Every structure is written in structure tokens, then in C-alpha cells.
Amino acid sequence: MPIENYQIAVEKIDALLKTLTGLGGLRLKYRITAGAGAADPNKFESREVYVELAGPDIHLVLEHNAELLRSLEHVAAKALRLEPEEHDLVSFDAQGYKAMRAVELRLAADTAAEQVRRTSQPYNFAPMNSRERRMLHLVLRNYEDLRSESSGEGMRRYVVVYPKSWQPQAAQPGGVARARSFGRG
Description:
This protein has about 180 residues and is of the alpha+beta class. It has two domains: about 5-95, GMP Synthetase, Chain A, domain 3; about 100-165, Ribosomal Protein S8, Chain: A, domain 1. Helices cover about 40% and strands about 15% of the residues. It has four helices and six strands, in the order αββαβαβαββ. The chain has helices at about 5-25, 60-80, 95-120, 130-140, and strands at about 30-35, 50-55, 90-95, 125, 145-150, 160-165. A hairpin with a 6-residue loop joins β5 (about 145-150) and β6.
């Protein structure tokens, strides 16, 4: 469901950022764009509100793989009372981080595709957030001979790339593993 009132959304995010910069002491500037002007030109995000951050403390926002940047998005989505599947509607960026990350993910998807084709075995990416998993799925859907799925739970969720016709190996008859005890006894 799209954001119903862009003006209210902008006001809430502005208040959140004023609190963060005022009470938190972060030296940041920001520009909030809502509506058609906020659309992602790469079509990786279905954003309706876009916040661009800058300023002397921007390095703090981008540390640890932009953990604070992603946290700001999450808090803003919660302030707007968006459902988890709607969190893509709000996007924060700084110094083109997301565009660079999109290029990295595109290259990683291409590399994984080559490896899956060469080995005919699935490729597991490291765990990543839902937005980055979505980007990988969007890139990988262009490969007709491959398929991708998300696996894992919560913060450990990751993307797996498979050959299109890949099926897991069936368990061998009588191949039940038995537990061994290595303790003293």
C-alpha cells in the first residue's frame, strides 16, 4: 500500500532527523523528496520517499557497511507505521552508497551465475538485508537458465542461486547418520 500523504510523511521524517541531529549531536544535512521525484531510476527500490544525507559526520552513517543508514530507514518506516513489506517505500542514501552497492551486487550476481553454470552447483551468498536480497533476485531473474531463492531466517537470511533444473540429491537408502559420543565414559 503506498504512502497516502507525502506531506505528513516528510514532516515525520524531518522531525525524526531534527531530533537525531539535535539531541544526538550528529552534524548532518538532509534533503527529503517525496512522490514521483523520489522514484529510483534503477528500479531496484519502489521508494516513494527518498532522503539524501550529507555533512561532516556522514562517515559515521556509512561505517560498518552503512549500518546506521539502514537503521535510519528502519526507524523512519516504523515512524510512518509501514508494514515490513512496505519498508522499501522509504529510502535513505549518502554519498551514492546505495548506487555503489547496487553495482557491487550486480557484479556479485554475475560472478555467482558464472560459477553456478560452471559447476552446476548452487551458490550461497552471505546473509544480507531484504533490500539487497531483492536486488540480487531482480538481477538474477534475467538469467533464464538459473533461479534464485531466499533461505534462512531473520538476520541470517541469504540468497541461493540454482541451475534452473537443479534438484537436491535424494537421501541414500540406509544412509542415516548415527550420533557418536566422543566424551569420556
